[in-house]
Write a structure and sequence with these properties.
Strand content: 25-35%
CATH architecture: 2-Layer Sandwich
Structural class: alpha+beta
Number of strands: 12
Order of helices and strands: HEEEEHEEHEEEEHEEH
CATH class: Alpha Beta
Number of helices: 5
Shape: elongated
CATH superfamily: GHMP Kinase, N-terminal domain
């Protein structure tokens, strides 16, 4: 990004206004669609301003892990391709894609929104593997919040395929009416630090100049279920307190939107 753009963004933030006209604590417009991929067991598309993320769910059956013999398996995979942003490269998973996968995984896993015991078919022998693939089609910042919403709604939209216990085969072409029961609604709020300002839902340009990043996920009662810090600059105790307050209040707004789907 050019020096002129950088200075313009910083000057706008000093006046508590962002380059796109938003206030520091405002999200971009959010649009949601579910059931957009017929071949997937569940899917969702989330548009957050110019950022667009698609999530797909696939069910398969495998043997449970020995230390969780009565539970199913869960995995999140995020893929960042140059189609979504020219700054990304094809090839092995980048640190950014690995972080996206882990942060979304942690928010859903630690919220206990999915009871993994419900995914067990036969203890120690067979269980459902719930896999979520996240594909940004346009990466204009804040893939974390969009990724959590898309993943959660794809799981909510998903239906189990038919499973024959005797043969151990899954009939993916045949869907049942049964889905995954969700107990909590985890939402993530990403907060960027630029100078002494904290701003919610950073764009790609804002991310390129931010000094630190906080990803804070909360559940229905407002409790924090996951947190991640990015960037090399530390945040003060006061900044952390303010970030938590923002995440809690904005989390309520996001949750109302998500509960409509």
């Amino acid at each position: 990004m050019s020096l002129v753009n950088t200075e313009f963004i910083k000057e706008s933030l000093n006046n508590n206004v962002r380059s796109d006209g938003r206030k520091l604590e405002d999200y971009r417009d959010i649009e949601i669609e579910t059931g957009i991929i017929p071949q997937a067991n569940g899917s969702a598309r989330v548009r957050l301003g110019n950022t667009e993320v698609i999530a797909g769910v696939k069910f398969s059956v495998g043997k449970p892990y020995p230390d969780t013999a009565n539970q199913g398996m869960f995995m999140v995979n995020g893929e960042l391709s140059p189609i979504s942003n020219p700054n990304y490269r094809s090839g092995p998973p980048s640190p950014e894609s690995i972080e996206l996968s882990r942060v979304v995984d942690r928010a859903i896993r630690e919220s206990k929104t999915v009871n993994f015991e419900d995914l067990c078919i036969e203890e120690g022998e067979a269980a459902w593997m719930l896999s979520v693939d996240i594909y940004p089609t346009n990466a204009d910042g804040n893939l974390f919040d969009a990724g959590v919403i898309a993943a959660l709604l794809a799981i909510k939209n998903a239906k189990f395929p038919e499973y024959d216990a005797e043969s151990g085969k899954v009939a993916h072409e045949t869907r049942t009416k049964n889905g995954v029961k969700l107990q909590n609604v985890p939402v993530m709020v990403t907060i960027a630090k630029v100078g002494d300002k904290l701003l919610i839902d950073p764009t790609f340009e804002e991310e390129s100049i931010m000094e630190a990043r906080l990803n804070i996920a909360t559940i229905d009662n407002g409790n924090i279920c996951a947190m991640q810090k990015g960037g090399v600059t530390p945040v003060t105790n006061e900044e952390l307190k303010n970030a938590v307050k923002l995440a809690t209040s904005k989390g309520k707004e996001l949750r109302k939107l998500i509960n409509k789907y």
